[in-house]
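ok so I'm stuck.
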Amino acid sequence: MPASESRIRVKRTDGHIQIEFVDRNILDEGNIRSISDEIAAIIEAEPKPRMVISFANVEHLSSAALGALITLNNRIRARSGQLRLSNINPQIYEVFAITRLNTILQIHPTNEDAAKSFV
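replied:
not stuck anymore, here's the structure
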């Protein structure tokens, strides 16, 4: 697999950017770094990024991925933007709840709900 192959799908719609992961398991630190760098570049290209990150295809997530989400959220907020997460399966949501990330990050059941929550 070429190193330049994207690990995410990006869709621009209704004034926001929707990100979906290609992989079911987001565990490898190299992939997490690559995904983070790619999303960071998208954030930096937007004056006030409004982003929905969908976890619809994700079955497993590492703690490094959680750290990357916090960093991305901080970057978006620094640019007066908003981040929403959606479609998180119950097992992964449990990790967000245990780590209290569900109090820091806005999590919605669907992409549509997430998109409607932008102010």
